[in-house]
Amino acid sequence: MDIKSYLKERGGLVNSFLSSYFDKPFLPAVLRESMRYSLLAGGKRLRPILAMASYEACGKNPADIIQYASALELIHTYSLIHDDLPAMDNDDMRRGKPTNHKVYGEAIAILAGDGLLTEAFFMLLDTSGSVSKESLIEAAREVALAAGVHGMVGGQAQDIISENSEPEAQALQFIHKHKTGALITASVKLGGILAEADKNTLDALTSYGENLGVAFQIVDDILDVSGDASVLGKPTGSDEKKKKMTYPSLYGIDLSMKKAEELITNAIDALDIFSENAEPLREIAKYILKRRH
Amino acid sequence: MDIKSYLKERGGLVNSFLSSYFDKPFLPAVLRESMRYSLLAGGKRLRPILAMASYEACGKNPADIIQYASALELIHTYSLIHDDLPAMDNDDMRRGKPTNHKVYGEAIAILAGDGLLTEAFFMLLDTSGSVSKESLIEAAREVALAAGVHGMVGGQAQDIISENSEPEAQALQFIHKHKTGALITASVKLGGILAEADKNTLDALTSYGENLGVAFQIVDDILDVSGDASVLGKPTGSDEKKKKMTYPSLYGIDLSMKKAEELITNAIDALDIFSENAEPLREIAKYILKRRH
Fold it and tell me: How far apart are CA A187 and CA A206, in angstroms?
């Protein structure tokens, strides 16, 4: 399969869904504009794509869960808006455009993030489709757990606290596993939960997601050192400037890349129980290593 | 009934529940501390109390929904933490203590708010109790709608945008209905939804909540002009200093109080279909007018 065309097609589906979901005007207009600005800025849509690919791996039609998958992108986008704030990472550029608070001011940026996070749960609990109510509740709980203090929010807090500290393996692992890994793992699990997969299948998807999530963040760290700013849509070298605790800062680039490769091998191995339905998940894992943004 | 003892007893139940829910340590410790700091700072617990009183009005045992009711307090507290931020209302005191960001810094305050909001949905979707899954989903959707861009977040955005503008009836109504009214209405509805009340009953609770919510905010505006700072736990006169659009600024204190009284009468009238089970809801409404903080 051609993974680049696959990602482009699936990302396009998510973009269309999100654009039409937020098509209807509401007040205040500037709040809606600010949410659309960041949400429709053209991200990779990795989390929704993973959820759909995982649903597909369970033999289901991914189009059926586009709304639930897209809700993950609202949560990811809210986290980027809040992380970019002056009080947090103080970033000016994101996805090739000025960050939300640079355009709309800090107050609206905070509220846009709050609004996206809240709307995500509204979307996740839509009972009009074919998914059972039990699965919807389980899925939304999984996402809440992964996005909250025991996951993404906790990881981001540790990331902020660890700035300017001497790099240290345990804190670094905590940050990567929580800040990025948790929501990526939940995205993969979401597909399995909505497909009502059995425990064995869910365990396999969880193991895939956990390995993939940390590998993704390691590659992110590496790209911040050696990537191309024009392809990334944000300046490189910002982790070093902020004295962030990263894999390259602790292990150097070569060893970090080797660690990412190992994790990707583990992720793919975890999918052994799946048939060719899981080919997209396998190809996504390989792509993570080769990505340039 | 003695409404003050009732409020004290019910508030105590909520405080105990929240304290025990957040008893277990998690990392990073400062994030947990910051969430507990604001959550356990001794608010009135009006929203959880309303949800329980409304469940009680439907003939049910309020203790059964303490967790769902308490989730509302997480959402209310998150909104206070974010509203107090320098980029928003820039407040230094809240509930008689320095605001969250004054103690823990802006980054942790933003994340504590994000974490509380996310955890609220986790709490609302706990299926271990006796409430049906259908009701839990409906209740969580109602709360998400009321807390998000079509409710509280939208109202706060309009409030920020309207600062320094000439007071104007339509914008003021929008702010009060959304910023405060929406979550208070949802709190009252929550009890009805979880009790599986019929449409007539839910409509009555909604009407009560809508009237009560706006009345509550008008009294809040009045207390900011003429209240006692030491009882309020925050300085008075801050709305005028920030040129906020408020009822007193548009109509003066006497007319504002009259409007609040009218709304409370409407709220109580809406409860006509209920028996004496709704006595607490009626007494809460009367208390709203007399409250000093």
Answer: 10
Domain of B40?
3-290
Q: How far is the first Cα of chain B from the last one, in angstroms, to the nearest whole number?
A: 21
Q: What is the pLDDT of residues A192-241, one digit of tens each?
A: 999 999 999 999 999 999 999 999 999 999 999 998 888 888 889 999 99
In B, which residues are within 8 Å of A31 by CB distance? Answer: 149, 153-154, 157
Residue B95 has pLDDT above 90, yes or no: no
- B137·A141 Cβ contact <8 A: no
Residue B47 CA to residue A58 CA, distance in Å, equals 42
Chain centre to alpha carbon of residue A138: 19
pLDDT digits 0-9 by tens, A118-138: 999 999 999 999 999 999 999
Q: Give the separation between CA A39 and CA A48, rounded to whole angstroms.
A: 13
The enclosing domain of B278 has a CATH number of: 1.10.600.10
How many whole angstroms separate alpha carbon B67 and alpha carbon A67?
28
CB pairs under 8 A between A and B: 147
CA–CA dist B122, B117 (Å, integer): 9
**Segment A245-268, tens digit of pLDDT:** 999 999 999 999 999 999 999 999
Q: For tokens 């007071």, what's the residue?
A: B167
Token digits of residue B9: 């007893």
Q: What ipTM goes with this model?
A: 0.97
Cross-chain residue pair B141–A148, CB shorter than 8 Å = no
Could B125 and A144 be called an inter-chain contact, meaning their C-beta atoms sit closer than 8 Å?
A: yes
Longest Cα–Cα distance of chain B, Å, equals 51
Instruction: Quote the percentage of chain B above a pLDDT of 70.
Output: 100
C-alpha pair distances (Å), A213 with each of A56, A68, A173, A193, B222: 19, 19, 12, 18, 51
**Residue A258: CA atoms inside 13 Å, Cβ hemisphere, count?**
5
Q: How far is B196 from chain A (nearest CA, A)?
A: 16
As a whole number of angstroms, the longest Cα–Cα distance in chain A is 51
DSSP H helical segments within chain A, as ranges?
3-21, 29-39, 46-57, 66-84, 100-104, 106-124, 133-147, 152-162, 169-175, 182-194, 199-226, 229-232, 238-241, 247-251, 253-269, 279-290
Give the pair of three-digit tokens for residue B26.
Answer: 């998690």
**What's the structural domain count of chain A?**
1
Mutate which of B118, B133, B193 to disrupt the A interface (most A C-beta within 10 Å)?
A: B118
B167 pLDDT higher than 90: no
Tokens read off for B242? 């920030």
Q: What is the pLDDT of residues B105-135, one digit of tens each?
A: 999 999 999 999 999 999 999 999 999 999 9
Q: Tokens for B82?
A: 């974010």
